[in-house]
Specification:
about 375 residues; alpha+beta; 5-stranded antiparallel sheet; 14 strands; about 35% helix; binds adenosine-5'-triphosphate; binds magnesium ion; ATP-binding
Length: about 375
């Protein structure tokens, strides 16, 4: 898609940074699609997803993504065949009677899928109700990376192919494309945002530095986050190396990590709180000052006021998953999930393009770590 929300931008080398995010301190601020398009609220208290880093924006494009008051994400169905195809994909992977080990294994790499959703006012307007994978983070740093050697599917018209190739001719060689990101600057207490033009500007000789921006918090490179991200991407790669039934085009990996650093003495207490009680939950939309956040941490009473029954179950299964991964004290909070399945097709061969992209992405991440 080609609809960037253009804020008054500063060109900083290859970076396209939204200046208002960082110049208005001391509290973190970000403009959202909603602010740009005017106050177009969604149905039933839903609002445009405030921390969306790429893709179609609600109130700006024809379709977009909303945040439900219960903390889930609502992705509006694209016009056919894309929307129904994505819906079918989620339904297949999350089918109650699904007993295909390959698909069951895939679930861990996707946002949880709850159902389709529509508001009583417009029952024909369908949404996919999904887990917000950024939800447990206070200052979520988010990056959307499109994976594969081709952004168009095998059934795309010649025109569509050419359009996609024009957008990023290096896709075939690099195998991935940064679609957007937001990175928390610890010192300034604000987010830097990078739109699709930033990623498209990255060439072979700048891709490493371009990608490393996502892991730089203004003071230091988050090597711990890179290491954890590599482990998660490797796990996704293993899934791809063992399956030949699905091929993915123009699909993304969503990287998320906690931008807010914890003081060393708070690390262990917070983590044990998270694991034992499962009550820590943060709403990305609620601005809280750092000091409030820290004092709440200390009192151990950070608890969502908007927690619904459904969120609770999502949260608990999330913590169970974390516990199963046997996190060490040093392991930072990181998510890497596959998203955007409008162009997933049945196949009989491995997804060579996606595998190529993942391997190259891993190689670049490793180089950032080694340098
Ligand atoms: N489950 C999710 N949790 C949190 N954020 C999400 C989730 N799904 C999507 N997002 C946010 O929305 C953005 C766009 O999502 P997605 O790629 O699914 O939509 P799109 O590109 O508009 O879709 P399409 O390619 O079908 O038109 C992502 O970059 C991410 O910031
Ligand atoms: Mg997308």
């Amino acid at each position: 898609m080609d609809s960037s929300v253009t804020l008054g931008r500063l060109e900083l080398g290859h970076a396209t940074v939204s200046p208002d995010t960082c110049l208005n301190g001391p509290r973190a601020k970000e403009r959202t699609a909603q602010q740009h398009a005017g106050p177009r609220a969604g149905p039933l208290g839903c609002v445009p997803l405030s921390h969306q880093v790429a893709g179609h924006k609600y109130g700006v494009d024809k379709v977009g993504i909303l945040q439900h008051p219960d903390g889930t994400v609502l992705k509006q169905l694209q016009p056919p065949p894309r929307g129904p195809r994505e819906m079918q994909f989620y339904c297949k992977v999350y089918a109650k009677d699904c007993c295909d080990p390959c698909l069951l294994d895939l679930q861990q790499h996707l946002p949880k899928y709850y159902s389709t959703w529509s508001s009583p006012d417009s029952p024909t307007e369908l949404y996919l109700k999904l887990e917000d994978v950024t939800r447990r983070f206070q200052k979520p740093c988010i990056m959307d990376v499109k994976i594969g050697q081709r952004s168009y599917d095998p059934f795309a018209s010649q025109e569509k192919r050419e359009q996609q190739i024009r957008k990023y001719p290096l896709m075939e060689e690099i195998g991935f494309l940064v679609l957007g990101m937001r990175v928390y600057n610890v010192g300034l207490d604000c987010f830097d945002t990078y739109d699709q033009h930033y990623g498209r500007g990255l060439k072979k000789d700048t891709i490493k530095d371009g990608l490393s921006k996502f892991f730089y918090n203004g003071n230091l490179l988050r090597r711990d986050v890179i290491t954890a991200s590599i482990a998660k991407v490797k796990s996704i790669l293993r899934w791809f190396e063992n399956q030949s039934q699905l091929n993915f085009y123009a699909s993304s990996l969503l990287f998320v990590y906690e931008g807010l650093p914890l003081a060393p003495e708070e690390k262990s207490s917070t983590r044990s709180l998270q694991k034992n009680e499962g009550v820590l939950e943060y709403n990305n939309n609620i601005e809280q000052s750092l000091s409030t956040m820290y004092s709440l941490h200390k009192k151990g009473c950070m608890q969502s006021h908007h927690q619904s029954k459904q969120d609770n179950s999502a949260w608990h299964s999330l913590t169970q998953l974390d516990a199963g991964e046997q996190e060490t004290e040093e392991m930072p909070e990181v998510e890497v999930r596959m998203i955007d399945f409008a162009h997933v097709f049945p196949s009989e061969v491995p997804d060579h393009g996606y595998i190529y992209g993942l391997r190259n992405l891993l190689m670049v991440l490793q180089t950032i770590l080694d340098d």
